[in-house]
Amino acid sequence: YLCWSAIATLFELIMNRDIWLTIVAGNIVRTFIGYGIAPFWFLSALFLSQVIYKRASNFRIYIQRLIVVLCLFLTIIFYNKVYVMSMDTNIYFGMILRTVLRQVFCFIFFCTGTYAGRAYRRFLPRNQGYAIIILMMFFMVTVLSTTMNSGVNLHTGKIGNPILFLAGGLSGSYLIIGLAVIAGQNNILEKIGRASLGIMCIHYKTIPIWYVVKQAVSVIPFNELRFVIQFLALTSISLWLTQLIEHFLPILIGKQKDYS
């Protein structure tokens, strides 16, 4: 998290030399309060979710689930009020409030995703017919809730309607996990999955590759085709760079160098 934030700050300084002090000061504060620089905020959110989940796992399973349900209930009731308050207060105090709000959602997603993964592995392989029906239901809920909700940016805390956001986020996550379980072992998917952390960090416009790819595909006349080619190009380049990082600087993707 700290390494990627430092790399992003360095690139930002190169591209905006006239306001370097503002960039450095702002990025340092954002990084250390956990608000983060997009897209690296998800690293701090993932770390904190794992820490909280490990703590919660010391309790009995019904206590764990009660904690998740309580988080859901309180978030739905108080989210919009706290979010509005965070926008009307001091900029950095507002960031702290939105970071806490965001962390509650991330913890909910982390826990429910873990539970869903366990349940799927037991249920889906033996019940392929039911599995298709269940996944189709999740697909429909995802499409409906995301269509009905406004734009979402979890980094800044903008989620629109909390119920629609949770419905779309959870059903979409369950859909992807279910499809992955049904797909079973797949070399291409496994390769992308193992490199997902690196792809997530490299693909965004904080790293200059985004600008290079966007400029390269700008000559393509059709928006849809341009989007698909840009997506495939960014994913392929990010995957290749992640493999290089894994070999030369594995610490950046949470791995240790093999000296054997």
Poorly predicted parts: none
Q: Helix and strand succession?
A: HHHHHHHHHHH
Give the biggest sheet: none
SS field, number of helical segments: 11
Structural class: mainly alpha
- As a percent range, the share of helical residues equals over 70%
Number of strands: 0
Strand content: under 5%
Overall mean pLDDT stands at 84
Q: Could you give the distance between the termini?
A: 27 Å
How would you summarize the topology of this molecule?
Layout: H1 2-15, H2 20-32, H3 41-56, H4 61-87, H5 91-123, H6 128-148, H7 162-183, H8 187-194, H9 196-202, H10 209-217, H11 223-248
Helix pairs in contact: 1-2, 3-5, 4-5, 5-7, 6-7, 9-11, 10-11
Short description:
The protein has 260 residues and is mainly alpha-helical.
Q: Could you characterize what this model shows?
A:
The chain contains 11 helices and no strands. 75% of the residues lie in helices and 0% in strands. The longest helix has 33 residues, at 91-123.
List keywords for this structure.
single chain, 260 residues, mainly alpha, 75% helix
